[in-house]
# Entry
Amino acid sequence: MNIFRLTGDLSHLAAIIILLLKIWKSRSCAGISGKSQILFALVFTTRYLDLFTSFISLYNTCMKLIYIGCAYATVYLIYAKFRATYDGNHDSFRVEFLVVPVGGLSVLINHDFSPLEILWTFSIYLESVAILPQLFMISKTGEAETITTHYLFCLGLYRALYLFNWIWRFYFEGFFDMIAIVAGVVQTVLYCDFFYLYVTKVLKGKKLSLPA
Amino acid sequence: CHRTNVKDEL
# Structure
């Protein structure tokens, strides 16, 4: 555990909590892509199956349970409790275009051809693109609430910090995992355009709106 | 690859 890894995890946790609180406090999930949230729930479910097979640390187990619990709570709020506020018309990204290629890729390129390992690989690949329905939704409506942009910033920052974590681990532990690194780079790059808008607009007190 | 190490990440 190094400082990048820890702050990365906390940034990820902050993103998840920010989104849950935003929906809960405003009693609305307007502007939030339910599809991205379903994909994240799928990511956590397929990655953390090792909860049943191996124990790493209390920290590890607790964080996994919190991530999974929050992911399903978010999906529940969007598709059940506050379903009336869900903007399905603008959430029109075709997720099969992500899940099918990612599924194929995880069968083809993995560390070990075993069910748990393939599911882990699937979750890594899927996480790298799971935010696309959300970004697509924002590009479609042309705007995002400021609290939603804070959520996205924390979520992007988390993977960027993991990149530094991997650089650290490579130098000090001689450890690297090519699948996680490549997917992590892809995931971080997808946020770059958003990071630019966040810094130039949101941090200067303006609402994030795209030119028509 | 050090696969067992990666599982300690989230």
Residues 48 and 64 of chain A are 7 Å apart (CA to CA).
